[in-house]
Target: Sulfate/thiosulfate import ATP-binding protein CysA
Amino acid sequence: MLRVAVKKKLADFTLDIQFSVANNILVLLGPSGAGKTTILRAIAGLLRPDEGTIAHGERILFSSSAKMFVPPQLRRVSYMFQEFALFPHMDVRTNIWYGVKKYHKDANELYERLLALLHIEHLAARYIDNLSGGEKQRVALARALMAEPEILLLDEPLSALDSDTRLELQEELKRIQGLWQIPFVLVTHDRAEAKALGDEFLFMEKGRQAEHQPLWQDALLQC
Ligand SMILES: Nc1ncnc2c1ncn2[C@@H]1O[C@H](COP(=O)(O)OP(=O)(O)OP(=O)(O)O)[C@@H](O)[C@H]1O
Model:
């Protein structure tokens, strides 16, 4: 279970949010500038909240009262965003192995399994520059999972893709989450995508949970 309860003063308002997510997919929704990406950055350790706690199970990642801040590289959190952040001049295999923090004997097996799961075996030797958007997205997902994260953060991961590829990858993400059984926190502006992927939803407004969450959720599920 990932638990987040943080405050952070931002340019126009204070982010003040509490939520938890078990081993399923939480979707963060809300208008532009509501604070969704800031939450992901805080979970990843790329931004330090002013106060509060972020914990995964018994493991504290951030606690202002205990003066604890685990740096991003020690958090076991993978963060995928739209630009993929793959190395264009390297092949797929090298990009995916880049996700491994420490080599261990099962890493080869994991690598093979990820290629098969994401249907990218035939791309292993190809350069990133020569891949389609959907293929890049699969490689980025393989790299994120190669790090064996305990939490996966996804910020508009599919927004650059055409609608067919998007639907296909939504199914892939859902299936992989079912297999991996770790918390996924997903930001999207696409309501159909939120509905297709989300197990739980958090609607935000100006850094806070929006009022009337159940009404928002009913409206989403009926659309
Ligand atoms: N480190 C920071 N310090 C101060 N203000 C910040 C910081 N990072 C972001 N902000 C501001 O906080 C607000 C929330 O930004 P954030 O990127 O989290 O919104 P968002 O909901 O993800 O928006 P979008 O949907 O457009 O990506 C914005 O007004 C932004 O300018």
In short: The chain has two domains: 1-76+151-159+178-222, 83-148. Residues 83-148 form one domain.
